[in-house]
Amino acid sequence: MSPIYKSGAFAQQCFASHRQTLAFKRLGLPSTVILDCTTCDMEHRLTVLRFTSPTSEATEQSGEHLARCVETHRAALRVSAMDIARDYVGLRCDDCHRSFDLDVATFETSRE
Ligand SMILES: [Zn+2]
Ligand SMILES: [Zn+2]
Question: Is the pLDDT assigned to residue 92 strictly greater than 90?
């Protein structure tokens, strides 16, 4: 079994160096978002405390909306922001032109 690194440093590194290959992979509601990176073959698992959207919807609705994006046009989702010092990850859907703010509790990284 490959080791799991409990650190956001790897995800931050991917975002800083090659964000074009850092992609949304899977959503496990209510609280898991999985990103993967084809450059370094790493999988980043985020445990999310809260999904919010700048369009002031309730938290649950933002999560549900994100789930709908995943179902209907997953390829349009991308990572738009990452700041591990603030436990923050931003996702953006190019299809709905909507962004999602993720309040992250833990970052875990493993090799795929
Ligand atoms: Zn990477
Ligand atoms: Zn969408």
Answer: yes
